[in-house]
Amino acid sequence: MMCYDCTEEGRTDTVGIGICARCGLFTCRDHAQIVREQVEQFTGLARPAGRPSVRRAVCTTCRVAETTH
Ligand SMILES: [Zn+2]
Ligand SMILES: [Zn+2]
Predict the structure, then answer these.
(1) CA 15 to centroid of ligand 2, rounded, Å
(2) Distance between Cα 13 and ligand 1 center (Å)
(3) Which ligand is nearest to the CA of 1?
(4) Are the beta carbons of 16 and 25 closer than 8 angstroms?
(5) For the chain, how many helices (H) and strands (E)?
(6) CB–CB of 62/33 below 8 Å?
(7) What is the pLDDT of residues 40-61, one digit of tens each?
(8) Distance between CA atoms of residues 44 and 63, nearest Å
């Protein structure tokens, strides 16, 4: 699959790495950022120290939209 942003720029030499968790478009290493998010697990009062985090690919368009206020 082709990265959506690359097709917009007319590039064909990039390798897609995954799908943006926000917009669902396929994206490449140049146009995506890997973000880590904590998985909220409330199982009573005890919070384990090493809570698991998940990895998500987010395209730069969505990332900018999320971080610009
Ligand atoms: Zn790209
Ligand atoms: Zn996106």
Answers:
(1) 16
(2) 9
(3) 1
(4) no
(5) 2, 4
(6) no
(7) 766 666 666 677 788 899 999 9
(8) 33
Q: What is the CA radius of gyration of the chain?
A: 16
Length of the chain: 69
Q: How far apart are CA 32 and CA 28, in angstroms?
A: 6
pLDDT in tens, 18-32: 999 999 999 999 999
* Amino acid symbol at 29: R
**Nearest by Cα to 63 from 37, 39, 33:** 33
Amino acid 34 reads I
C-alpha–C-alpha distance, residues 19 and 66, integer Å: 17
